[in-house]
Amino acid sequence: MTNKEIFEGIARKDNQTFLYLYKQYKDRIIHMVRKNSGAEDEALDIFQEGIIALWSNIVQGKFQLQADTQIGTYLFALCRNIWISKLRKRKIVKDIDEEVGIADAAQLDAMEEEYEQINELTLVIKQLGDACQKLLHLFYYKKSSLKEIAHEMGFTEKTAKNNKYRCMQNLKELYKKRNLAL
């Protein structure tokens, strides 16, 4: 299954998608938990909690599928963090920075933080008008030139440049307001 198919399957609670996740990632989670003071039954509980967290993050819009997103890596990071939390509660924290086949702990932490930032920015971008969203998408995501954007959106190149600046200012302002509200 592709990441898009997995993402959409999780969002609609498709049993085949959950079965696929179970078959693909269960052993990795068991390996990580067992290597770090856990038993297989604990690992299965962690895996289930991770799946629920993944589903919840998708439904609530906290996790957005990006072009370079690997759902398995994100699921692993969720499970790893759930397990670390349980270990901390037991005061048995071990060094879990060891590589376990996907990425090391620092990379997983950085990826999780990046996902949160991307999702935060996505929510703010949705507050912009359609024209600003389209302009910024063309410029930053599709890497279109201002001349191409002007042609596509029906204005002059100078207007495209001014609108891009205005849209970025609005985006920055909305982002600041959102972070102050949090």
How would you explain this protein's 3D organization?
The chain is mainly alpha-helical and 182 residues long. It has 2 domains: 3-113, Rna Polymerase Sigma Factor, Chain: A; 127-181, Arc Repressor Mutant, subunit A (Orthogonal Bundle). Helices cover 75% and strands 0% of the residues. It has 8 helices and no strands. It has helices spanning 3-11, 15-35, 40-59, 71-90, 105-125, 130-141, 146-153, 157-181. Helix 2 (15-35) crosses helix 3 (40-59). The longest helix has 25 residues, at 157-181. Residues 92-103 have low confidence and may be disordered.
Strand content: under 5%
Estimated radius of gyration: 20 Å
Characterize the main sheet: none
Tell me the number of strands. Answer: 0
Any idea what the CATH architecture of the largest domain is? Orthogonal Bundle
Order of helices and strands: HHHHHHHH
The average pLDDT value, as a whole number, equals 81
Number of domains in the coordinates? Answer: 2
CATH class of the largest domain: Mainly Alpha
Total of DSSP H or I helical runs spanning 4+ residues = 8
First CA to last CA: what distance? Answer: 36 Å
What fold name stands as the CATH topology of the largest domain? Answer: Rna Polymerase Sigma Factor, Chain: A
| Oligomerization | single chain
User: Can you tell me the overall shape?
Assistant: elongated
Task: Estimate percent helicity.
Answer: over 70%
Describe the structure using short key phrases.
8 helices, 2 domains, Arc Repressor Mutant, subunit A, 182 residues, Rna Polymerase Sigma Factor, Chain: A
